[in-house]
Automatic annotation (TrEMBL):
Other noteworthy facts: May also have succinyldiaminopimelate aminotransferase activity, thus carrying out the corresponding step in lysine biosynthesis.
Protein name: Acetylornithine aminotransferase
Catalytic activity as recorded in UniProt: N(2)-acetyl-L-ornithine + 2-oxoglutarate = N-acetyl-L-glutamate 5-semialdehyde + L-glutamate
Self-association and partners: Homodimer.
GO BP: L-arginine biosynthetic process
Cofactor(s) required, per the database record: pyridoxal 5'-phosphate
Length: 414
């Protein structure tokens, strides 16, 4: 027996300091440690209450400990956990069928995260291009300020150099262009391009929606050159924008779509959706994953899709969005020295700081957290809101009240 372990290992006291002692320092988490949650309500180790407007970075869209999902997962836990990819299972077949029926796609591949979904999409795109056109067609076009994951391939495709520093040499034949710039896209998408990957709304890059004209132009240029168009909907998908997937409110249908985050409401799962023709270029053994599409994840995700993909539910997301935007419009009018115009889609919302306060988004969110409101940032200049899609009018009003109080305290100390 390991001499370091004792019989009380599962119940020993732990604090925020424990993170600094035993975990690799890839994060800088908040001082408080959440211990339980329900809906949008979170409590920490001191039993302090918080209103969660982060939903785990646009993940827990049906709220924490959603009773329908708890019940479904509990039943599956007592039935079948894992098999390995030498076998299939009923929940994953039902989930794939539901996603195919609800989207443009004919085929689904399941994995465990958004990064893995994008990795699969990019590998498939290159395989498709090499097989159909030859190895010269391998270049990948992405956007500056984009984010597509943390594997070496996906972080290289992402358009934020700060995340690739020190990991060189990076995968080659990857180019980045400005977001929403049609002429830059026209110049970059040539006959040697295998794929263009784009977020229909940039999340980590500042919560910036893609212009419909820009997305349509990407579709046109890909059709002209034989490149595949990949929509990264890891953050925007599964109801976040008020449609099941954001592409559904645009004039564009992608060739490949990636999904994760809200798909499992906190249970790890990712998905890559594509057409019959493209899917055939992944043959047996060409790609895989040990845990992807396991019965537990697939059970949760199927229930998530069934609950969110309802007209009334999606209409409520847009209604809640309009209420938050109305509050933010009043906020920016009252504090024009601090904020620019709010932007986003549905319940993925960015509030940019004005010129004199750039770089201080985290300072504002820390004060809000102290007052009981959990918020995100999207880069150093943008406060990001991504509440659960079930957010109530009362919770929207409470978030507005706390944010205003936090702004007053921030400005008093500025």
């Amino acid at each position: 027996m390991n001499a370091k372990l004792d019989s009380g290992v599962t119940t020993r006291p732990v604090t925020r300091q424990t993170f600094d002692e035993v975990l690799v320092p890839t994060y800088a988490p908040a001082a408080m440690v959440p211990v339980r949650a329900a809906g949008l309500d979170v409590w920490d180790q001191e039993d302090k209450h918080y209103l969660d407007f982060t939903s785990g970075i646009a993940v827990s869209s049906l709220g924490h400990a959603n009773p329908v999902l708890v019940d479904a997962l509990t039943k599956q836990i007592n039935t079948l956990w894992h098999l390995g990819n030498g076998y299939t299972n009923e929940p994953v077949l039902r989930l794939a069928s539901a996603l195919v029926e609800a989207t443009f796609a004919d085929r689904a591949f399941f994995c465990n995260s958004g990064a893995e979904a994008n990795e699969a999409a990019l590998k498939l795109a290159r395989k498709y291009a090499h097989t159909k056109f030859g190895p010269h067609k391998s270049r990948i076009i992405s956007c500056l300020s984009s984010f597509h994951g943390r594997t070496l391939f996906t972080v290289s495709v992402g358009g934020q150099p700060k995340y690739t520093e020190g990991f060189e040499p990076l995968p080659q034949e990857i180019n980045h262009i400005p977001y929403n710039d049609i002429e830059a896209a026209r110049a970059a998408i040539l006959d040697d391009v295998a794929a263009v990957i784009v977020e229909p709304i940039q999340g980590e890059g500042g919560v910036i929606p893609g212009n419909h004209e820009y997305l349509a132009a990407l579709r046109e240029f890909c059709d002209k050159t034989g490149a595949l168009l990949i929509f990264d909907e890891v953050q925007s998908g599964v109801g976040r924008t008020g449609a099941l997937y954001a592409y559904m409110d645009t004039p564009v249908i992608p060739d490949i779509l990636t999904s994760a985050k809200a798909l499992g409401n906190g249970y790890p799962i990712g998905a890559m959706l594509t057409t019959e023709e493209i899917a055939q270029h992944f043959n047996v053994g060409s790609h895989g994953t040990t845990y992807g599409g396991n019965p537990l994840a697939a059970t949760v995700a199927l229930n998530v899709v069934e609950m969110i993909n309802q007209p009334a539910f999606l209409a409520r997301v847009k209604e809640a969005s309009a209420k938050i935007f109305a509050n933010l419009e009043k906020l920016t009018a009252d504090y024009p020295q601090l904020f620019g115009k709010a932007r986003g889609l549905g319940l993925l919302i960015g509030l940019p700081l004005a010129e004199g306060f750039k770089g201080r988004a985290k300072d504002v969110t820390k004060i809000a957290e102290k007052m009981g409101l959990m918020l995100l940032i999207a880069g150093p200049d943008v406060i990001r809101m991504a509440p659960a899609l079930i957010v109530s009018d009362a919770q929207i009003a409470e978030a507005d009240r706390i944010l205003r109080a936090a702004v007053d305290e921030f400005l008093a100390a500025a």
